Amino acid sequence: ADGTVEIPVVVNVIYKTAAENVSDARIAEQIAVLNADYGGTNTDASNIPTEFQTVKADDVKVRFKLVNTIRKSTSKTSWGTNDAMKKASTGGLDATTPTNYLNIWVVGKMTSQGRTILGYATFPESAGLWNDGVVIAAPFFGKTGASAPFNLGRTATHEVGHYLNLRHIWGDANCGNDLVADTPTQTTANYNKPSYPLYNTCSGVSRSVMFMNYMDYVDDAAMFMFSAGQKTRMQAVVDASGSRAGL
Ligand code: ARG
Ligand code: ZN
Ligand code: CA
Description:
The chain has helices at 24-39, 50-53, 154-163, 228-238, and strands at residues 5-15, 62-73, 102-107, 111-112, 115-116, 119-121, 134-137, 199-202, 205-208. It is α/β, with parallel strands linked by helices. Strands 2-1-3-7-6 form a 5-stranded mixed β-sheet, with helices on one face. Strands 4-5 form a two-stranded antiparallel ribbon. Strands 8-9 form a two-stranded antiparallel ribbon. Zinc ion is lined by residues 158, 162, 168.
């Protein structure tokens, strides 16, 4: 009644080693991180700089509820971004009704063009398709036993942001457009743990960069906010007339 949408989640774990077979406790921990970050109750929200407090999304009004965990053992050691993990016929697990459930696949290791990747997601244009959902590599899923500096569950927060229509905050181009007005235009991605304030210049305008946004590339401990504009974009996807209304 308060407009909060609770998204049912199916976690599909495809593992080779015991470490890749993430525990139920770790899955619960990951869901709790999503709920805190989307609810704006993450404790590190206290680090949001004063200048961005007026544009922070207090509560995105999206929550997550684990409804099923499906596990499958595999002999495959590494996966790519070609969606093989999303089909039984290619060694993966078929999605559970993606129109109605957010499917998250956890695989042991993922690479793209020879580099390790943390995760990837489909945008709302893929709503309901067989490959719709989020993939996270096990070392970056949940918190306990995860790999620093990506061990606070924020890879899922970031990927679910894409799933709910958010672009990278730098718009994937030099001074690109993320289609959100209240996130300051920034030249490029930020990494590691930048120190605030960080300025950059686009079209001759110097701006303080919102590098602590979940849709930048900083370490898990350095990201702790969505903006109000990002909330509006995500709400448009899950509301009754949105492309993910079936969730
Ligand atoms: N590189 C991935 C992507 O573009 C995920 C980045 C997640 N960042 C993090 N601090 N966990 O979707
Ligand atoms: Zn991303
Ligand atoms: Ca922007």
